[in-house]
Amino acid sequence: MAWAKGVLISLAALLVQDVAAQGISAKGSDFLRFGCSQLVIERTDPIVNPGTLYTPHLHQIVGGNSFNITMDPMTIDPPKTSKCTSCRMVEDFSNYWTASIFFRSPENGTYRRVPQMTNGQLNGTLMPQEGGITVYYMRPFSGTNKKTTVFKPGFRMIAGDPSLRTKPSGPMMNCHRCLSKSERTSGGSGAPCAPTDTAEFPKKPCPGGIRVTVIFPSCWDGKNVDSPDHRSHVAYAPGSSNLASDKCPATHPVRIPQVMYEVMYDTSEFANPEYYKDGKQPLVYSFGDTVGYGAHGDYLFGWTDGALQRAMDALGTNCFSESCPVLKLQSPADAIACTKPQQAKEEVSSDVWLKEIPGSPMMR
Fold first, then answer.
1. Structure confidence by residue, pLDDT tens digits, 54-74
2. What distances in angstroms separate CA 193 from CA 50, 62, 66, 221, 297, one per listed residue?
3. In the predicted model, is pLDDT for residue 52 greater than 90?
4. Which helix (H) or strand (E) holds 220?
5. Weakest mean pLDDT among 103-117, 241-255, 274-288
6. More confident site: 125 or 140
7. C-alpha 82: how far from its chain's center?
8. Average pLDDT over residues 84-112
9. Sign of the C-alpha dihedral, residues 214, 217, 222, 228?
10. Model confidence over 311-331: pLDDT tens digits?
11. CB-based contact 87:57 (threshold 8 Å)
12. How many whole angstroms separate alpha carbon 157 and alpha carbon 344?
């Protein structure tokens, strides 16, 4: 997003269902928004495949450097075991991860990982590093009761389903935005998963990149920090919007901050119109999805005690985006310096052509 004051106000208005009912100002909006640089790219997933090296598909991971193949909350407490975080918010040692995208050469069928880029900062520039994501924590944009209860230690969840190959019903919770060259830094404008975005991969060249948005549930059962499918303990708010209201279903009565990711993939090298003829497109997710409906994200909570609750309570006053006096902000350079070696060691460079995608997923 372009983060001049006027654009911030415009975005906040677009994020609600009833724009006229909002009194949004740049010094009082309903979300935190901050960048996280790339911690590591590897085939690990401590939520879906705990304890497994070389899980089925490749992820980009950001956040606290205590990230491990097993993140058992009884043995690993990210705020205590992490020595640094790749996120701008110093008190956030959570881990956030998303799938990689590959370009498949129409000429010889080899693959290159699509480079990732950061989204725009408040000053209108990108963090100077390949990769990373932009994270949002949002409270309800509509309704009168905006109180949210933050996650408990050990909390984790996933959004989206990598097995999907048909368009899901209801509001888009994961989507792709095709960017023009002029939108490369800003990431485009407008509400997330707007009607102009697509649940599937774009069917046209995207010279400014593709912005993938992953929107997590905003309601919790109030008891379980996880569930066997990593979804059942949370739920989306009822209604036709993909963003949280002040309502939650009776089965999941506790309103939690709505987490959202923006992930920027640099497709400028792969924007040849010849790749998009006859309804075809050359991109594939690291888990073998050639359509794009399987976009998903994983979340593991790791804020220091009370920090996120202070911020959520301060929203609407002088706390917004990266400018929130109750939180500590580190420099982009310090965030970028927080990395860790691969645990599942293999070639993942975006400069290298591969005969197959790591894990050799079946293309569907």
1. 999 999 999 999 999 999 998
2. 31, 23, 32, 26, 15
3. yes
4. strand 219-220
5. 241-255
6. 140
7. 21
8. 97
9. negative
10. 999 998 888 888 899 999 999
11. no
12. 23
Question: 10 Å Cβ neighbour count for 305?
Answer: 9
Structure tokens at 61: 């991971």
> Distance between CA atoms of 353 and 106, rounded to whole angstroms?
13
Whole-number pLDDT of residue 24: 33
**Could you tell me the two tokens for 11?**
């975005």
- Give me 4's structure tokens: 């001049």
Whole-model pTM above 0.70? Answer: yes
Element (H, E) at 309: helix 307-314
Neighbours of 207 (CB within 10 A): 18
First to last CA, the chain: 32
- Extract the tokens encoding 171: 């509001």
Query: How does the average pLDDT of the chain come out, rounded?
Result: 89
Computed over its alpha carbons, how large is the radius of gyration of the chain? 19
- 129-165 burial, b at 16+ Cβ within 10 Å, e below that, comes to bebbbbbbbbbbbbbeebebebbeebbbbbbbebebe
Tell me the two tokens of residue 252.
């999941």
Choose between 126 and 282: higher pLDDT: 282
- Compute CA distances 307 → 43, 91, 92, 148, 270, whole Å: 31, 7, 8, 13, 41
Q: What gap in Å lies between CA 292 and CA 284, rounded to an integer?
A: 7
- Helix H or strand E segment including 78: helix 78-81
Stretch among 87-96, 110-119, 148-157 having the lowest mean pLDDT: 110-119
Closest CA to 57 of 301, 336, 351, 298: 298
Residues near 360 by Cβ (< 8 Å), separated by ≥ 6? Answer: none
Instruction: Please check whether residue 285 is in contact with residue 363, taking contact to mean a CB–CB distance below 8 angstroms.
Output: no
> Tell me, what's the pLDDT at 122?
66
pLDDT confidence bin for 145, thresholds 50/70/90: confident
Tokens of 363: 């293309």
What DSSP string runs through 244-296? --S---TTS-EE-PEEEEEEEE--GGG--GGGGGGG---EEETTS-SSSTT--
